Amino acid sequence: MTYGLPRNHSLEKKHKNHGKSSKKKNRQNKKNGNNTKENCDDTQITTQQASAKKKTTTTTTTPSWLIFLRNLWRPMPIVMWIVIIIQFALQHFADGAVLLGIQLANALIGWYETIKAGDAVAALKNSLKPIATAYRDGTWQQIDAALLVPGDLVKLGSGSAVPADCTINEGVIDVDEAALTGESLPVTMGTEHMPKMGSNVVRGEVEATVQYTGQSTFFGKTATLLQSVEADIGSIRIILMRVMVILSSFSFVLCLACFIYLMVNFKQKFRDALQFAVVVLVVSIPIALEIVVTTTLAVGSKKLSKHKIIVTRLTAIETMSGVNMLCSDKTGTLTLNKMEIQEQCFTFEKGHDLRSLLVLSALAAKWREPPRDALDTMVLGAADLDECDNYEQLEFVPFDPTTKRTAATLVDKRSGEKFSVTKGAPHVILQMVYNQDEINDSVVDIIDKLASRGIRCLSVAKTDSAGRWHLCGILTFLDPPRPDTKETIRRSRQYGVDVKMITGDHVLIAKEMCRMLDLDPNILTVEKLPKVDVNNMPSDLGEKYGDMMLSVGGFAQVFPEHKFLIVEALRQRGYTCAMTGDGVNDAPALKRADVGIAVHGATDAARAAADMVLTDPGLSVVVDAMFVSRQVFQRMLSFLTYRISATLQLVCFFFIACFSLTPHDYGIEDPKFQVFYLPVMMFMLITLLNDGCLMTIGYDRVVPSKLPQRWNIPVVFTSAIIMSVVACASSLLLLWMALDAYDEKRYPNSWFGKLNIPSLKEGKIVTLLYLKISISDFLTLFSSRTGGRFFFSMAPGTILLVGAVISLVISTIAASVWKKSSSDGVPTEGLAVGGDTAAKLLPLWVWIYCILWWIVQDVVKVLAHMLMEAFDIFGCVSRSGRGADVECGSVCKDGEGGAPKEPTL
């Protein structure tokens, strides 16, 4: 039923042989291995079925509870368990409970992501169980298709699903293979064809012999492809793991050194020395790192849902920010998956135009009844049906695969004229007209030219008063691109994302579609693709075939394994690939891609394999996904830079203070205050306020990059280290000034004395440093969020700003009125408690001190980024180009100049 394409002469030859004797056909069927009712051996089938059941292998799945436990027994969770046990051993039950809650939350997040990864295979396996009409025990029975075995005789009728890969014994049927190949129109199949599992019969009825079942079918192999794809934990998970390992290892080494130093030099009790080391270690380990990142991704997911994009794997949002290659299925994705009549038509009789040809086509159908097939749907949707009502249909001949046309006899109610009309395949109609010899060359030339462009056509003819057929004209039709497809491709390129079309359609159709969408019309077919075992994919595909694939605009006549192979080769070539699709044939490629996107109306298997699901037609929202994902990336980049900086400045401050700024050296004789550190309560308050504020970073205002993004960890660490050095140095300087002013003899010559700041007792020195560390932490966040630019270059989001202000106010008030005590052996006292007016203004003085150093910190950060750009350190510039070399995730000028103008999200 594919009009305008080259004729299938072998199929026509088969039609002529349908009258052969049943005896001869049965002999031939036995020879070919095809069963009929006359030769089907029930006993043999039963034996085969029993044997098949014994050979059936059951797929073992990991219990969900075991997956959850595994998430509690990895390198980082093990470190956390050690810290939790120590906290409970030291009777710090509140601290231990908080850490335990965070540990379980992280494990739950990992468990949820792992469980969802198996949904694609499960959905596809469930779809492998249609009902089959099979010949068993001397009668036709409806059985579970899973019980079919090769050699079974089945009946394929209109409206039924093909239960296995079969060969047709005799006759022809029309089969809808859209879910497998993307072909919009049904395909006529005869004895030389093999209807495949996953397709549907739309017209006709035949008997067929089962050749392949279950996982051995073309459709079943798709499940095998899905299973061959290992779950991708996402680059953000890898980055988080590396950062946590680096920071934890660094902190552990410094804390261990402090522990040994305290035990040897100060003869501290094991419990006290261990408490100091563990408290500093707990605060320095980025425990809530994964939770904050997940929260940020969840906020991005919520924004995407407003654009009709459902995210099924949160880490796909971060991956989407780095996508630089978009591979798209054609039918139903780039196109409407609905044939439409085109404006271009060809007439061969005077008085006819597009409108009249459509009316005649509609008259060759039941125009006031539901359309019987895709062609009738197309014609009746375009024709003036009110005009058709001026005619009475006397006789109607529906479409027959053997004749490839429909026909009707009508009478004009107005004039009484009686005539017949027909529509169908151009070569069939041409053989019917009275003047075939005169118009043959011109008609064939038109058909060939249209076919060379992948445009299908439909001929319309009408009889005259003498009963002769006249060719009235030729209608053209195709599955047109969606209205927004061309603009979506343009915008994708504007964002540094190349686009490749992948389709199972004919190469001519693919070329025409590329021309319409401004894609390169150079199309690669399966003959030029390598033949490889998808279960053992070579690692050099990208190296061998990458250039060839990059030189074309798309791929045609491909099967699921080819789509899988194309995506894998591009990934090996260094591209971060997104794949869009809607059918079962797209599911393996969706799973293999870095980001799989199931479009509106996709099958269950495609949706389950995808990371994102579009709930509205069209691809325009894919660009919105790029925009939002790059915003999310910038927020995670800000947070990660801050978290590294905050950890380093904290652990380095206490490490250096432990060795270099001991209170005893400055006249403090308290035996319990031999080493400077903060009580557990202050540490936990810093941690809780910081993490609470950071939960709002998902709402921060950011400028997304114009180009795809990838993590440049050396630049991230360099920026974080520079900021942490300044913050740590300022904290050490403040501690030294406070200790230096403790002794009355030293006070006049100390910095505090020169600035008229009163000398502070032990408790106020501790609280002073608590406030300084708290303020510096939050100010560092505002420096981190602007990358290589000054902090005032971009205002923060309202929610983040409010969260930071609330946290800073709480920290300031707590430091001002902190109760005088000796918690954990560390003296504490509120800065505004007691003393004269100058003493009560200590919190204000700390604020001024922190702001001045914040400005210094920001200037040093900007200068460092300028230096990295000038000398291309860590690939800061060279890795910010287009295509596979894009590495601008944290380049210094990322997003500078503004992104392409987009609606506020």
UniProtKB/TrEMBL annotation:
Listed GO CC annotations: plasma membrane
Subcellular location: Cell membrane; Membrane
Compositional bias segments (type: Basic residues): 12-30
GO molecular function: ATP binding; ATP hydrolysis activity; P-type proton-exporting transporter activity
EC number: 7.1.2.1
InterPro entries, per database record: ATPase_P-typ_cyto_dom_N (IPR023299), ATPase_P-typ_P_site (IPR018303), ATPase_P-typ_TM_dom_sf (IPR023298), ATPase_P-typ_transduc_dom_A_sf (IPR008250), ATPase_P-type_domA (IPR059000), HAD-like_sf (IPR036412), HAD_sf (IPR023214), P-type_ATPase_IIIA (IPR006534)
Residue ranges crossing the lipid bilayer per the database entry: 243-264, 276-299, 640-662, 674-699, 711-739, 794-818, 838-856
Listed Low complexity bias regions: 31-56
Protein keywords: ATP-binding, Hydrogen ion transport, Ion transport, Magnesium, Membrane, Nucleotide-binding, Phosphoprotein, Translocase, Transmembrane, Transmembrane helix, Transport
Keyword Cell cycle among UniProt keywords: no
P-type ATPase A domain span: 128-227
Catalytic activity: ATP + H2O + H(+)(in) = ADP + phosphate + 2 H(+)(out)
Membrane topology: Multi-pass membrane protein
GO biological process, one term: proton export across plasma membrane
Region annotated Disordered, chain positions: 1-56
UniProt similarity note: Belongs to the cation transport ATPase (P-type) (TC 3.A.3) family. Type IIIA subfamily.
PANTHER family according to UniProt: CALCIUM-TRANSPORTING ATPASE (PTHR42861)
NCBIfam families: ATPase-IIIA_H, ATPase_P-type
Protein name (database record): Plasma membrane ATPase
Organism: Trypanosoma brucei
